[in-house]
Write a structure and sequence with these properties.
The structure holds 2 protein chains of 2 kinds. Chain A is mostly helical. Chain A has 7 helices and 7 strands; from the N terminus they run ββββαββααααβαα. Chain B has a 4-stranded antiparallel sheet. The longest helix of chain B has 30 residues, at 104-133. Chain B: The chain crosses the membrane at residues 58-79, 104-132, 153-173, 179-197.
């Protein structure tokens, strides 16, 4: 079953390997052809999206990631929520919410929540800017760009900013009967950040980014 | 359609796979390599035609998630103190409380995120892992959909952990009312993380290999 295929010459029947693409979900082999911007190419067997290039995607992603990073920094430092009940007042920042578990002797959980809500999303924004800004400007990729991008894709499911904001909404309803809660500027910054993240992920086509990185490295 | 499949006569679902062509595809960037290549030339990811130990890791993480889910339901998630009166509520207890308050919508969100999704996920992953081995199971697209749903929805169970964190940070009014996290928060977070890892370790290519076996 194993056919030895030299990399330089390609497959005897299928041609150069650079013109092939394997579906990551079902291993189906497809011949790569030019996919026009705003078109989507799917795997013929399992319908997984293979390529979905968008016009100006690199620039848009860099802009959106930069916006999200700035919003995240604002969200960390401004007051997040304020609770008022019978003359008593309690304020919390995002860091306060993140550190809530450490007061109850659950420091590891605090660190995990800090990573899910603040650390990993922020690191992903920075990583995307680092990898894609040179692409958007038509430069050569930055050093270790491939490693950074691979890491940022690998870490993606663990960046949970959008889940946190739904958690905030649920918590607000839970205390609504007992006290008055006022969202602070950090709340709005964080909500905006979630919207920007969703927009940004819509522009992302990871196979296109990998191909562009590869071509720029070679040239 | 812009990407054409290979010239490949035969049954409709039959498609030439990289493995059959003596090649290996990178699941990170899609690049195709000769079968004996170990590391992707484009992105540097480790290459494997089929992840041989995938199912073992899926089961291991799944069982870990299941074990962590038990204390998550037995121990309290929230400890509330109002005027010196201490009240502990578990995950299900919290949902019942919300229903008593009449917040049906939020009760439903919490119930789905903390009970329906985790249990559904245990069943779905176990079913996928079994169905890949036995050759009688449902068609590839059904299994593929189940896998995609599990991958997409698993992270959302973390909602309850975040709710506890926000409540504990916000409701600290000394004697009047204070909310503190209970031990179940840790077990629940671990359970969610373990099942996420279980789903990530599943190699979806196994779904389609089994399907090919059904066909022939």
């Amino acid at each position: 079953m194993t056919i030895h295929v030299p990399h330089t010459t390609g497959h005897p029947a299928l041609g150069p390997l650079d013109e092939l693409i394997a579906c990551p979900t079902c291993d189906g082999l497809h011949r790569l052809v030019h996919v026009a911007p705003d078109m989507t190419a799917r795997c013929r067997r399992c319908h997984t999206v293979l390529l979905a290039p968008r016009r100006g995607a690199m620039t848009q992603i860099v802009m959106l990631a930069a916006t999200a990073a700035i919003l995240m920094i604002a969200a960390i430092f401004f007051p997040f929520l304020e609770l008022q009940a019978g003359g008593l007042n309690q304020r919390t920042s995002i860091m306060g919410a993140v550190l809530a578990f450490s007061h109850a002797g659950m420091l590891p959980l605090s660190l995990a929540v800090a990573a899910f809500v603040v650390g990993l999303p922020l690191a992903r924004f920075v990583a995307l800017i680092y990898v894609l800004a040179p692409m958007a400007l038509g430069w050569r990729p930055a050093r270790h760009a491939a490693r950074v991008f691979r890491w940022s894709e690998w870490v993606r499911p663990w960046a949970m900013a959008e889940i946190f904001i739904i958690g905030v909404a649920v918590a607000l309803v839970k205390v609504a009967g007992l006290a008055k809660v006022t969202p602070g500027p950090a709340f709005w910054a964080f909500a905006a950040l979630v919207l920007v993240t969703v927009l940004k992920d819509n522009f992302m086509c990871r196979f296109t980014i990998w191909r562009t990185l590869d071509e720029r490295t070679k040239s | 359609m812009s990407v054409h499949d290979m010239a490949n006569a035969g049954r409709t679902h039959e498609i030439l796979t990289a493995r059959r062509a003596g090649l290996v595809g990178c699941t990170t960037c899609g690049k195709v390599h000769p079968l004996d290549t170990r590391v992707c030339r484009r992105c540097g990811a480790a290459l494997q035609s089929r992840d041989e130990t995938s199912l073992q890791r899926v089961w291991a993480w799944l069982i870990a998630g299941l074990v962590a889910y038990i204390p998550a339901n037995v121990y309290p998630m929230l400890i509330t103190q109002t005027f010196g009166k201490r009240q502990e509520s578990t995950i299900v207890g919290g949902v019942i409380e919300l229903v008593h308050h009449g917040s049906w919508g939020v009760a439903l969100i919490v119930f789905v995120a903390s009970v329906v999704v985790p249990i559904g996920k245990f069943i779905a992953i176990a079913w996928l892992a079994i169905s890949v081995r036995s050759r009688s199971a449902a068609d590839g697209h059904t299994r593929q959909h189940v896998y995609e749903i599990v991958e997409f929805i698993g992270r959302w169970s973390m909602i309850d952990v975040f709710v506890v964190a926000i409540l504990a940070a916000l409701v600290q009014l000394d004697f009047v009312a204070s909310v503190n996290p209970g031990t179940a928060a840790v077990s629940f977070a671990l359970s969610v993380a373990f099942t996420m890892l279980s789903a990530q370790n599943f190699d979806p290519r196994l779904i389609w290999d089994a399907y090919e076996a059904d066909d022939t």
